[in-house]
Amino acid sequence: MGLLEGCKGLVFGIANDRSIACHIAQAVLQEKAVCGFPHLPGEKNERRVRKALEGIGVTDPWLLPCDVSKDEDLDAVFASVRERFDAIDFVVHSLAFADRAYLKPGRFAETPREVFAQALDISAYSLVAIAQRAKAMMPRNGSILAMTYFGAEKAVPGYNVMGVAKAALEACTRYLALELGESGIRVNTISAGPIKTLSAMAVGGIDEIFEWVAKKAPLRRNIHAGEVGKTAVYLLSDLSGGVTGQNVFVDAGYNIVGL
Ligand code: NAP
Q1: Catalytic annotation on 234?
Q2: How many CB atoms lie within 10 A of CB 169?
Q3: Does the residue 164 lie in any domain?
Q4: How many domains does the chain have?
Q5: Is residue 1 included in any domain, yes or no?
């Protein structure tokens, strides 16, 4: 019997087989969950997501085109979910966006208003927009999980406006946890150490961050995306029934080092 047997949910944010969302999908499917996969619209995107899911053994995926910056797309996703399921048990928010031109060491102070607003809209507000729609479909408890990074708490060179967006995402998580708790809905984040994905490669100086973490983290290595998948199973399942509003670090311990 799987830890998520009988559970239904959505995993947002698969772009390819390296995406953290793909590893989370693999882990939750192994635990017998049933999932839909919202992804950015477009034929090319759909092909990439389909290929990534094929790689983890999903041959006939339930794909839902969705740009999270558009309310009408989110409404369409949840309308489709309602047609298929009476209720859902979990949502994974594993997505973010910021103009990579401003993800370079030394460029935070130059961030234009529209770049800042877009980064916060897609990377942080989208969690609120998703949670407000998911709430109506979670009458019997639920778990919402988002992905964050240490650059929310500390100034990491090059992470820049994305660090500000992640700080907002983490604050949104706490406020959502506070309000949705009375409906039995838990909301948490995983703060992952650096992993080689499309998004990570957009951050200037990322190779130096990988090298530094491998040298300085207590485990003396970078993490594997599969380790995030396993922690996601914990946070989405009854194993973490009493846990909400928390940020769980999966970073080989890097965040505790005060060197
Ligand atoms: P990824 O594979 O590039 O995933 C990011 C996803 O966000 C992509 O699927 C992307 O779609 C999607 N996205 C961007 N804008 C969107 C929009 N408007 N609507 C819907 N989807 C949108 O990178 P990842 O590293 O797995 O990132 C997943 C999450 O983990 C992000 O929140 C990231 O900040 C976080 N995280 C990553 C690391 C790391 O080191 N990799 C560490 C800590 C936290 P397209 O590719 O189709 O544009």
Answers
A1: no
A2: 26
A3: yes
A4: 1
A5: no
- 33 Cβ closer than 6 Å to some ligand 1 atom: no
- The answer to whether residues 189 and 173 touch, using CB atoms and an 8 Å cutoff, is yes
Q: Is the CB of 147 under 6 A from ligand 1?
A: yes
Report the CATH number at residue 99: 3.40.50.720
Closest CA to 151 of 195, 191, 118, 98: 191
Atom 20 in ligand 1: which residue has the minimum CA distance? Answer: 67
Q: Is 195 in the pocket of ligand 1 (CB under 6 A)?
A: yes
Report residue 195 as tokens: 């992993």
pLDDT tens-place string over residues 76-108: 999 999 999 999 999 999 999 999 999 999 999
Is-catalytic flag, 149?
Answer: yes
Instruction: Check if the beta carbon of residue 247 is closer than 8 Å to that of residue 192.
Output: no
User: Counting atoms of ligand 1 from 1, which one is nearest the CA of 202?
Assistant: 3
pLDDT tens per residue, range 44-77: 999 999 999 999 999 999 999 999 999 999 999 9
At 173-183, the pLDDT tens digits run: 999 999 999 99
CB of 200 closer than 6 A to ligand 1? Answer: yes
Given the residues 102, 125, 159, 254, select the one marked as catalytic. 159
Residue 127: inside a domain, yes or no? yes
- Give the C-alpha separation, 6 to 186, whole Å: 18
Task: Show the domain range for 30.
Answer: 8-253
Residue 140 pLDDT: 84
